[in-house]
What we know:
Number of helices: 8
Oligomer: single chain
Strand content: 25-35%
Number of domains: 2
Amino acid sequence: MQRRRFLQAAGGSAAMVVFGGRHWQGPTWAAEVGPQTGAAPSGEQSASGLSQGRPVVIERPFHGAVLNRRQGEQTAEGLRIAVRGWAPEGWQVRVNGQPAARNQRAFETSVVLKERETEIAAAAEGPDGQKAEDRVRVVWDRHSFPRYRVAIDDNSFFLRDIAQKQYKSLFDCFYLANLRKLHQKYGTKFVLNTYYTTGEDFNLSQFPDRYRAEWRDNANWLRLAFHAWANDPPRPYQEAPAEKVLHDFDKVTAEIKRFAGEEAYSPTTVIHFAMTRHEVFKPLYERGVRALSGYFRKNAEGRWDINYRWDDVHSEYIFTHDVWKDFNSGIVFSKVDIVMDQTPVEKIVPTLEPLTKDPNTAELMDLLTHEQYFWPFYVNYRPDMVQRVETAVRFVTERGYKPVFFHEGLLGAPVE
Protein backbone atom coordinates (compact mmCIF):
# COMPACT_ATOMS: atom_id res chain seq x y z
CA MET A 1 0.00 0.00 0.00
CA GLN A 2 1.36 3.40 -0.95
CA ARG A 3 2.10 5.50 2.10
CA ARG A 4 1.55 9.23 2.34
CA ARG A 5 4.48 11.59 2.46
CA PHE A 6 4.46 14.83 4.38
CA LEU A 7 6.21 17.63 2.52
CA GLN A 8 6.90 21.12 3.79
CA ALA A 9 5.60 23.64 1.28
CA ALA A 10 8.31 25.94 0.06
CA GLY A 11 8.18 29.51 1.29
CA GLY A 12 5.44 29.05 3.88
CA SER A 13 4.26 27.18 6.92
CA ALA A 14 1.59 25.11 5.15
CA ALA A 15 2.21 21.38 4.77
CA MET A 16 1.57 19.81 1.39
CA VAL A 17 -0.10 16.44 2.03
CA VAL A 18 0.21 13.72 -0.58
CA PHE A 19 -2.51 11.02 -0.45
CA GLY A 20 -1.90 8.29 -2.99
CA GLY A 21 -0.61 10.74 -5.56
CA ARG A 22 -3.35 13.38 -5.00
CA HIS A 23 -2.34 16.68 -3.44
CA TRP A 24 -4.14 19.07 -1.13
CA GLN A 25 -2.81 22.17 0.61
CA GLY A 26 -3.71 21.23 4.18
CA PRO A 27 -4.41 24.56 5.92
CA THR A 28 -6.38 25.92 2.94
CA TRP A 29 -8.92 23.12 2.78
CA ALA A 30 -12.36 24.65 3.28
CA ALA A 31 -15.08 22.08 2.61
CA GLU A 32 -17.90 21.79 5.09
CA VAL A 33 -17.79 18.97 7.59
CA GLY A 34 -19.88 15.99 6.50
CA PRO A 35 -23.10 15.46 8.44
CA GLN A 36 -22.18 12.04 9.82
CA THR A 37 -18.47 11.73 9.43
CA GLY A 38 -16.74 15.07 9.45
CA ALA A 39 -15.31 14.10 6.06
CA ALA A 40 -16.13 15.36 2.62
CA PRO A 41 -16.01 12.59 0.02
CA SER A 42 -13.51 14.20 -2.32
CA GLY A 43 -10.89 14.50 0.40
CA GLU A 44 -11.47 18.23 0.62
CA GLN A 45 -12.20 18.18 4.35
CA SER A 46 -10.00 20.29 6.38
CA ALA A 47 -8.74 21.94 9.35
CA SER A 48 -12.05 23.81 9.07
CA GLY A 49 -13.35 21.01 11.27
CA LEU A 50 -10.98 22.28 13.94
CA SER A 51 -12.79 25.64 14.00
CA GLN A 52 -16.25 24.10 14.14
CA GLY A 53 -15.93 22.50 17.55
CA ARG A 54 -14.48 19.26 16.20
CA PRO A 55 -10.81 19.18 17.05
CA VAL A 56 -10.35 15.62 15.76
CA VAL A 57 -11.61 14.52 12.36
CA ILE A 58 -11.11 11.17 10.62
CA GLU A 59 -10.94 12.16 6.98
CA ARG A 60 -10.44 8.64 5.66
CA PRO A 61 -12.04 6.16 5.65
CA PHE A 62 -15.51 7.60 5.18
CA HIS A 63 -18.16 6.57 7.70
CA GLY A 64 -20.11 3.75 6.00
CA ALA A 65 -17.36 2.92 3.50
CA VAL A 66 -17.59 -0.59 2.04
CA LEU A 67 -13.99 -1.63 1.40
CA ASN A 68 -12.64 -4.45 -0.71
CA ARG A 69 -9.25 -5.92 -1.58
CA ARG A 70 -8.54 -3.15 -4.12
CA GLN A 71 -8.74 -0.45 -1.44
CA GLY A 72 -6.22 -1.83 1.00
CA GLU A 73 -3.56 -4.45 1.51
CA GLN A 74 -4.80 -8.00 1.97
CA THR A 75 -2.83 -9.78 4.71
CA ALA A 76 -3.15 -13.04 6.61
CA GLU A 77 -4.81 -11.04 9.40
CA GLY A 78 -7.31 -9.14 7.29
CA LEU A 79 -7.47 -5.98 5.17
CA ARG A 80 -4.98 -3.28 6.12
CA ILE A 81 -6.27 0.21 5.32
CA ALA A 82 -4.94 3.70 5.82
CA VAL A 83 -6.55 6.00 8.39
CA ARG A 84 -6.01 9.71 7.87
CA GLY A 85 -7.29 12.83 9.48
CA TRP A 86 -6.73 16.06 11.35
CA ALA A 87 -6.08 17.10 14.93
CA PRO A 88 -4.50 20.19 16.55
CA GLU A 89 -0.75 20.49 16.28
CA GLY A 90 1.10 19.14 19.28
CA TRP A 91 -1.64 16.71 20.27
CA GLN A 92 -0.94 12.99 20.49
CA VAL A 93 -3.28 10.88 18.39
CA ARG A 94 -3.98 7.19 18.87
CA VAL A 95 -6.13 5.23 16.42
CA ASN A 96 -7.72 2.14 17.94
CA GLY A 97 -5.08 2.39 20.64
CA GLN A 98 -2.07 2.69 18.33
CA PRO A 99 -0.06 5.93 17.98
CA ALA A 100 -0.48 7.75 14.67
CA ALA A 101 2.22 9.64 12.79
CA ARG A 102 1.80 13.43 12.95
CA ASN A 103 2.79 16.28 10.66
CA GLN A 104 1.40 19.63 11.69
CA ARG A 105 -2.37 19.09 11.79
CA ALA A 106 -2.44 15.85 9.80
CA PHE A 107 -2.25 12.37 11.26
CA GLU A 108 -1.95 8.97 9.60
CA THR A 109 -1.71 5.33 10.56
CA SER A 110 -3.20 2.03 9.45
CA VAL A 111 -5.61 -0.50 10.92
CA VAL A 112 -6.38 -4.08 9.96
CA LEU A 113 -10.03 -4.95 9.35
CA LYS A 114 -10.69 -8.41 10.74
CA GLU A 115 -14.47 -8.37 11.09
CA ARG A 116 -17.29 -7.68 8.71
CA GLU A 117 -17.79 -4.28 10.39
CA THR A 118 -15.18 -2.34 12.31
CA GLU A 119 -15.35 0.86 14.35
CA ILE A 120 -12.32 3.09 14.04
CA ALA A 121 -11.68 5.59 16.83
CA ALA A 122 -9.14 8.41 16.72
CA ALA A 123 -8.46 9.68 20.24
CA ALA A 124 -6.35 12.81 20.71
CA GLU A 125 -4.87 14.37 23.83
CA GLY A 126 -3.41 17.83 24.06
CA PRO A 127 -0.41 18.99 26.08
CA ASP A 128 -2.70 20.45 28.75
CA GLY A 129 -4.73 17.28 29.07
CA GLN A 130 -7.49 18.25 26.64
CA LYS A 131 -9.12 15.22 25.01
CA ALA A 132 -11.22 14.66 21.91
CA GLU A 133 -12.04 11.85 19.53
CA ASP A 134 -13.79 10.98 16.28
CA ARG A 135 -15.25 7.63 15.25
CA VAL A 136 -16.23 6.04 11.97
CA ARG A 137 -17.54 2.60 11.09
CA VAL A 138 -16.68 0.67 7.95
CA VAL A 139 -17.64 -2.56 6.23
CA TRP A 140 -15.13 -5.10 4.92
CA ASP A 141 -16.25 -6.83 1.74
CA ARG A 142 -14.19 -9.82 2.80
CA HIS A 143 -15.24 -12.23 0.05
CA SER A 144 -15.33 -9.66 -2.72
CA PHE A 145 -14.68 -10.60 -6.33
CA PRO A 146 -15.18 -8.80 -9.67
CA ARG A 147 -18.91 -8.95 -10.30
CA TYR A 148 -21.73 -7.35 -12.24
CA ARG A 149 -25.47 -7.26 -12.26
CA VAL A 150 -28.01 -6.29 -14.91
CA ALA A 151 -31.18 -4.55 -13.76
CA ILE A 152 -34.00 -3.66 -16.15
CA ASP A 153 -36.42 -0.99 -14.95
CA ASP A 154 -40.00 -0.13 -15.90
CA ASN A 155 -41.20 -3.65 -16.74
CA SER A 156 -44.86 -4.11 -17.63
CA PHE A 157 -45.17 -4.49 -21.41
CA PHE A 158 -43.86 -8.05 -21.54
CA LEU A 159 -46.24 -9.17 -18.79
CA ARG A 160 -49.18 -7.64 -20.61
CA ASP A 161 -48.03 -9.27 -23.85
CA ILE A 162 -47.84 -12.74 -22.27
CA ALA A 163 -51.16 -12.36 -20.45
CA GLN A 164 -53.01 -11.18 -23.53
CA LYS A 165 -51.53 -13.66 -26.00
CA GLN A 166 -51.51 -16.63 -23.64
CA TYR A 167 -48.23 -18.00 -24.95
CA LYS A 168 -47.42 -21.64 -24.31
CA SER A 169 -44.09 -20.55 -22.79
CA LEU A 170 -42.86 -17.34 -21.20
CA PHE A 171 -40.07 -17.36 -23.72
CA ASP A 172 -42.43 -17.16 -26.66
CA CYS A 173 -42.34 -13.46 -25.79
CA PHE A 174 -39.41 -12.05 -27.79
CA TYR A 175 -38.26 -9.87 -24.87
CA LEU A 176 -37.70 -12.78 -22.49
CA ALA A 177 -36.37 -14.91 -25.34
CA ASN A 178 -33.61 -12.37 -25.95
CA LEU A 179 -32.72 -12.21 -22.28
CA ARG A 180 -32.51 -16.00 -22.17
CA LYS A 181 -30.14 -16.01 -25.15
CA LEU A 182 -27.85 -13.61 -23.31
CA HIS A 183 -28.01 -15.80 -20.22
CA GLN A 184 -27.18 -18.91 -22.23
CA LYS A 185 -24.25 -17.19 -23.91
CA TYR A 186 -22.75 -15.28 -20.96
CA GLY A 187 -24.39 -16.65 -17.82
CA THR A 188 -25.99 -13.24 -17.23
CA LYS A 189 -28.57 -12.82 -14.49
CA PHE A 190 -31.41 -10.31 -14.82
CA VAL A 191 -33.63 -8.55 -12.29
CA LEU A 192 -36.78 -7.14 -13.90
CA ASN A 193 -38.06 -4.21 -11.84
CA THR A 194 -41.80 -4.28 -12.28
CA TYR A 195 -44.83 -1.95 -12.28
CA TYR A 196 -48.21 -2.99 -10.93
CA THR A 197 -50.01 -1.61 -13.96
CA THR A 198 -49.51 -0.34 -17.50
CA GLY A 199 -52.76 1.62 -17.27
CA GLU A 200 -56.40 0.75 -17.78
CA ASP A 201 -55.65 -2.22 -20.04
CA PHE A 202 -53.51 -4.35 -17.67
CA ASN A 203 -52.34 -4.87 -14.11
CA LEU A 204 -50.51 -7.70 -12.35
CA SER A 205 -53.69 -9.24 -10.96
CA GLN A 206 -54.52 -10.25 -14.55
CA PHE A 207 -51.33 -12.21 -15.06
CA PRO A 208 -51.99 -15.98 -14.91
CA ASP A 209 -50.22 -18.31 -12.52
CA ARG A 210 -49.90 -21.17 -15.02
CA TYR A 211 -46.24 -20.27 -15.71
CA ARG A 212 -45.14 -20.76 -12.10
CA ALA A 213 -43.09 -23.86 -12.90
CA GLU A 214 -41.28 -22.04 -15.70
CA TRP A 215 -40.54 -19.06 -13.48
CA ARG A 216 -39.17 -21.46 -10.85
CA ASP A 217 -37.02 -23.34 -13.36
CA ASN A 218 -35.38 -20.09 -14.47
CA ALA A 219 -35.14 -18.36 -11.11
CA ASN A 220 -31.38 -18.98 -10.94
CA TRP A 221 -30.96 -16.18 -13.49
CA LEU A 222 -34.32 -14.37 -13.86
CA ARG A 223 -36.04 -12.50 -11.01
CA LEU A 224 -38.91 -10.03 -10.60
CA ALA A 225 -38.92 -7.12 -8.14
CA PHE A 226 -41.04 -4.14 -7.17
CA HIS A 227 -40.28 -0.90 -9.00
CA ALA A 228 -43.40 1.29 -8.71
CA TRP A 229 -47.16 1.29 -9.09
CA ALA A 230 -46.96 2.70 -12.63
CA ASN A 231 -44.72 4.61 -15.00
CA ASP A 232 -46.49 7.90 -14.35
CA PRO A 233 -46.32 10.28 -12.66
CA PRO A 234 -42.55 10.83 -12.66
CA ARG A 235 -40.83 10.73 -9.28
CA PRO A 236 -43.88 9.16 -7.62
CA TYR A 237 -42.21 8.58 -4.26
CA GLN A 238 -39.98 11.64 -3.95
CA GLU A 239 -42.36 13.37 -1.53
CA ALA A 240 -44.67 10.45 -0.76
CA PRO A 241 -45.06 9.19 2.81
CA ALA A 242 -43.60 5.81 3.64
CA GLU A 243 -47.10 4.33 3.74
CA LYS A 244 -47.56 4.95 0.02
CA VAL A 245 -44.27 3.30 -0.94
CA LEU A 246 -44.92 0.32 1.32
CA HIS A 247 -48.49 -0.14 0.06
CA ASP A 248 -47.27 -0.31 -3.54
CA PHE A 249 -44.30 -2.48 -2.59
CA ASP A 250 -46.51 -4.97 -0.77
CA LYS A 251 -49.07 -5.10 -3.56
CA VAL A 252 -46.52 -5.77 -6.31
CA THR A 253 -44.64 -8.26 -4.13
CA ALA A 254 -47.80 -10.22 -3.38
CA GLU A 255 -48.69 -10.49 -7.06
CA ILE A 256 -45.19 -11.59 -8.06
CA LYS A 257 -45.23 -14.33 -5.45
CA ARG A 258 -48.73 -15.37 -6.54
CA PHE A 259 -48.00 -15.88 -10.21
CA ALA A 260 -44.24 -16.58 -10.18
CA GLY A 261 -43.56 -18.03 -6.74
CA GLU A 262 -41.07 -17.18 -4.01
CA GLU A 263 -38.14 -18.51 -6.05
CA ALA A 264 -38.56 -15.89 -8.78
CA TYR A 265 -39.03 -12.97 -6.37
CA SER A 266 -36.29 -10.46 -5.55
CA PRO A 267 -36.46 -7.69 -2.95
CA THR A 268 -36.29 -4.40 -4.79
CA THR A 269 -32.92 -2.89 -5.61
CA VAL A 270 -34.14 0.07 -7.68
CA ILE A 271 -37.16 2.23 -6.82
CA HIS A 272 -38.64 4.26 -9.69
CA PHE A 273 -36.58 7.48 -10.06
CA ALA A 274 -34.54 6.49 -6.97
CA MET A 275 -36.06 9.29 -4.91
CA THR A 276 -37.72 8.49 -1.58
CA ARG A 277 -38.00 9.87 1.90
CA HIS A 278 -35.54 8.30 4.30
CA GLU A 279 -38.28 7.22 6.67
CA VAL A 280 -39.05 4.35 4.31
CA PHE A 281 -35.60 2.73 4.50
CA LYS A 282 -36.05 0.82 7.77
CA PRO A 283 -39.46 -0.62 6.78
CA LEU A 284 -37.97 -1.68 3.44
CA TYR A 285 -35.08 -3.35 5.24
CA GLU A 286 -37.61 -5.22 7.36
CA ARG A 287 -39.17 -6.42 4.10
CA GLY A 288 -35.86 -7.87 2.92
CA VAL A 289 -34.40 -4.95 0.98
CA ARG A 290 -30.61 -4.94 1.38
CA ALA A 291 -29.44 -2.76 -1.52
CA LEU A 292 -30.74 0.25 -3.43
CA SER A 293 -29.15 1.57 -6.60
CA GLY A 294 -29.43 5.03 -8.12
CA TYR A 295 -27.58 7.34 -10.47
CA PHE A 296 -25.94 9.51 -7.80
CA ARG A 297 -24.93 12.12 -10.34
CA LYS A 298 -25.51 15.82 -10.92
CA ASN A 299 -28.38 17.04 -13.07
CA ALA A 300 -28.36 19.87 -15.59
CA GLU A 301 -28.75 22.40 -12.78
CA GLY A 302 -25.66 21.03 -11.04
CA ARG A 303 -27.58 19.39 -8.18
CA TRP A 304 -27.09 15.79 -7.07
CA ASP A 305 -30.12 13.81 -8.20
CA ILE A 306 -31.63 10.31 -8.55
CA ASN A 307 -29.92 9.69 -5.24
CA TYR A 308 -32.63 8.70 -2.72
CA ARG A 309 -32.47 12.28 -1.43
CA TRP A 310 -29.04 11.88 0.12
CA ASP A 311 -27.10 15.08 0.71
CA ASP A 312 -24.21 16.31 -1.42
CA VAL A 313 -21.52 14.74 0.77
CA HIS A 314 -22.94 11.22 0.61
CA SER A 315 -23.98 11.52 -3.03
CA GLU A 316 -20.49 12.55 -4.09
CA TYR A 317 -18.95 9.75 -2.07
CA ILE A 318 -21.17 7.12 -3.70
CA PHE A 319 -20.52 8.65 -7.13
CA THR A 320 -16.77 8.28 -6.66
CA HIS A 321 -16.73 5.02 -4.67
CA ASP A 322 -19.71 3.03 -5.98
CA VAL A 323 -20.95 1.78 -2.60
CA TRP A 324 -21.89 3.13 0.83
CA LYS A 325 -23.77 1.66 3.80
CA ASP A 326 -26.40 3.53 5.77
CA PHE A 327 -26.03 2.02 9.24
CA ASN A 328 -29.28 3.62 10.40
CA SER A 329 -31.30 1.39 8.08
CA GLY A 330 -28.83 -1.37 7.20
CA ILE A 331 -29.25 -0.71 3.46
CA VAL A 332 -26.24 -0.50 1.13
CA PHE A 333 -26.52 2.13 -1.61
CA SER A 334 -24.79 1.66 -4.96
CA LYS A 335 -24.21 3.71 -8.07
CA VAL A 336 -25.51 2.69 -11.49
CA ASP A 337 -22.48 2.66 -13.78
CA ILE A 338 -24.26 2.86 -17.13
CA VAL A 339 -27.77 3.35 -18.50
CA MET A 340 -27.58 1.29 -21.65
CA ASP A 341 -30.65 2.69 -23.40
CA GLN A 342 -29.04 6.15 -23.15
CA THR A 343 -25.60 4.98 -24.30
CA PRO A 344 -24.97 4.21 -28.00
CA VAL A 345 -23.22 0.93 -28.73
CA GLU A 346 -19.96 2.60 -29.68
CA LYS A 347 -19.83 4.47 -26.35
CA ILE A 348 -20.54 1.56 -24.03
CA VAL A 349 -16.98 0.27 -23.73
CA PRO A 350 -15.48 3.79 -23.41
CA THR A 351 -17.97 4.43 -20.59
CA LEU A 352 -17.12 1.27 -18.67
CA GLU A 353 -13.39 0.96 -19.35
CA PRO A 354 -12.22 3.80 -17.06
CA LEU A 355 -14.23 2.35 -14.18
CA THR A 356 -12.22 -0.88 -14.34
CA LYS A 357 -9.00 1.04 -13.70
CA ASP A 358 -10.04 2.93 -10.55
CA PRO A 359 -9.75 0.83 -7.37
CA ASN A 360 -12.77 2.65 -5.94
CA THR A 361 -15.05 1.65 -8.83
CA ALA A 362 -13.47 -1.43 -10.38
CA GLU A 363 -14.88 -4.26 -8.28
CA LEU A 364 -18.59 -3.80 -9.05
CA MET A 365 -20.37 -3.11 -12.33
CA ASP A 366 -24.00 -2.02 -12.03
CA LEU A 367 -25.54 -2.18 -15.51
CA LEU A 368 -29.04 -0.81 -16.04
CA THR A 369 -31.55 -0.29 -18.83
CA HIS A 370 -35.33 0.10 -19.28
CA GLU A 371 -37.81 -2.33 -20.80
CA GLN A 372 -39.76 0.05 -23.04
CA TYR A 373 -36.83 0.66 -25.37
CA PHE A 374 -37.00 -2.98 -26.53
CA TRP A 375 -40.53 -2.60 -27.93
CA PRO A 376 -41.13 -1.41 -31.52
CA PHE A 377 -44.36 0.39 -30.61
CA TYR A 378 -42.59 2.60 -28.05
CA VAL A 379 -41.98 6.17 -29.23
CA ASN A 380 -38.27 5.99 -28.32
CA TYR A 381 -37.72 2.40 -29.48
CA ARG A 382 -34.06 1.42 -29.84
CA PRO A 383 -33.69 -1.28 -32.51
CA ASP A 384 -30.22 -2.11 -31.16
CA MET A 385 -31.20 -2.58 -27.50
CA VAL A 386 -30.18 -6.24 -27.40
CA GLN A 387 -26.85 -5.32 -28.98
CA ARG A 388 -26.31 -2.60 -26.37
CA VAL A 389 -26.90 -4.99 -23.51
CA GLU A 390 -24.75 -7.67 -25.08
CA THR A 391 -21.90 -5.20 -25.66
CA ALA A 392 -21.84 -4.27 -21.99
CA VAL A 393 -22.20 -7.86 -20.79
CA ARG A 394 -19.50 -9.10 -23.15
CA PHE A 395 -17.14 -6.36 -21.97
CA VAL A 396 -17.44 -7.21 -18.27
CA THR A 397 -17.42 -10.96 -18.93
CA GLU A 398 -14.20 -10.77 -20.92
CA ARG A 399 -12.60 -8.92 -18.01
CA GLY A 400 -13.47 -11.58 -15.49
CA TYR A 401 -16.62 -10.15 -13.88
CA LYS A 402 -19.17 -12.70 -12.68
CA PRO A 403 -22.97 -12.23 -12.77
CA VAL A 404 -24.74 -11.78 -9.43
CA PHE A 405 -27.96 -10.63 -7.83
CA PHE A 406 -27.35 -7.59 -5.62
CA HIS A 407 -29.96 -8.65 -3.06
CA GLU A 408 -27.92 -11.75 -2.18
CA GLY A 409 -25.19 -11.38 0.43
CA LEU A 410 -23.27 -8.11 0.16
CA LEU A 411 -24.11 -6.96 -3.36
CA GLY A 412 -23.74 -10.51 -4.61
CA ALA A 413 -20.68 -11.50 -2.56
CA PRO A 414 -20.86 -13.92 0.40
CA VAL A 415 -20.91 -12.25 3.81
CA GLU A 416 -19.54 -15.18 5.82
